[in-house]
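User: quick one, fold this
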Amino acid sequence: MSYQLENTQRGEKYTTIFSKVTPAQRRNRNARSRWRANCLLGLYLILMILPIYWLINMSLQTNSEILGSMTLWPQNLTFDNYIGIFTNSSWYMGYVNSMLYVAMNMLITICVALPAAYAFSRFTFIGDKHLFFWLLTNLMAPPAVFLLPYFQLYYSVGLFDTHIAVALAHCLFNIPLAIWILEGFMSSVPKEIDETAYIDGYSFPRFFVKVFIPMIRSGIGVTLFFLFMFSWVELLLARTLTATSAQPIGMIMTRTSTASGIDWGTLAAAGVLTIIPGILVVYFVRNHIAKGFALGRT
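Assistant:
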């Protein structure tokens, strides 16, 4: 009884304290909280954007200015670094080569992963869970593990220094990732839709293309985003499996060192141009990225 009385008195005390807070004090307290949150957010954005800004700043400067005193903006604005990239075939062909094998990898991966993910999401067969887990284990191995077998295999069959060689090598990592993501999106689609389509006379290819794929188009967009990001930034396999004809831009950027030193301005301009495709991809799939991180299980 005394314990209940003590709790009642304590509750009345807290109620009295909170009742003394005026609406103006409450608004001031909320304003201070928002101000602190905005300051932390602003600081975070500055720390994130500062390297990108500094890269752009360096790309618009000469090497002498870059190596001289530190400046927050170009003192002698120049676009010679970008002009040198667009007029030098060894530079701009690096971007072309990278885009070619990335596009080939995305096409091959999505064509293989769509039916495979559908099978995992709709059917039960012997060893399905073990096979699904085995696919994911490919993502746990570093690309360096597969350098030697890929190099020897492609050199033997004449695929060395070709775009398709890099695209197929990236499929080893991208296909399991695509199946994993797409299976989550497909599992969120009720199976009754498949049965209804068959009752309406749809064949499986027609149902899959006309009905099912449009229902998971956001999942396909997010999957393509992840595929692009892996192939675009991966350098080890791309560098090992190419020599001259299919060199990616990342490999060419490592060759800016000359007898007179490193060409910092050209290297910075190449870095800016390398970021642009990723920004464009993020812009087009920005509404689906959050759902993609949840693997469609939202």
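User: anything notable?
Assistant: The longest helix spans residues 23-59.
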